[in-house]
Write a structure and sequence with these properties.
Distance between the termini: 23 Å
Number of helices: 5
Shape: globular
Helix content: over 70%
Number of strands: 0
Strand content: under 5%
């Protein structure tokens, strides 16, 4: 993944886009897919509840950041975002079918680490853009 693409996507977040079909290159596709995955992950974590209201609010805020990135990359194609989000939620349902499976636990921890890392990049890009 090329991080300048992330910066460009975040800078474009305030730019209105025409309602066109999603056309993104391979690097943008990777960022888009990761954003959808993180949006779903943080949404699930907020829905499950965590260590308190502040932590739940943080999870919702994190999910919203990734929704913004996905929306920009998808040229505001809400139908595509919903389709991809639903597919990601189904993937999480399959991963977590057996909560005692060590491989499942590893997959969830890997997703958590990846999303935490990507969020630090998103935050840095947002700070740099302001």
């Amino acid at each position: 993944m090329k991080y300048p693409i992330l910066a460009a996507a975040l800078l474009l977040a305030g730019t209105p886009h025409a309602a066109t079909a999603m056309t993104i290159d391979a690097d943008e596709r990777e960022l888009y897919d990761n954003s959808i995955q993180c949006m779903a992950f943080f949404g699930i974590m907020a829905g499950l509840g965590s260590e308190g209201v502040a932590e739940d609010s943080k999870m919702v805020e994190s999910g919203a950041k990734f929704l913004a990135v996905a929306t920009v990359l998808a040229d505001e194609d809400e139908a595509q975002i919903k389709t991809d989000f639903d597919a990601q939620m189904n993937k999480f349902a399959r991963i977590t079918k057996n909560p005692d499976d060590p491989e499942m636990i590893k997959q969830v921890k890997d997703i958590d680490e990846s999303c935490q890392f990507l969020e630090t990049l998103v935050d840095a890009m947002l700070e740099g853009a302001s």
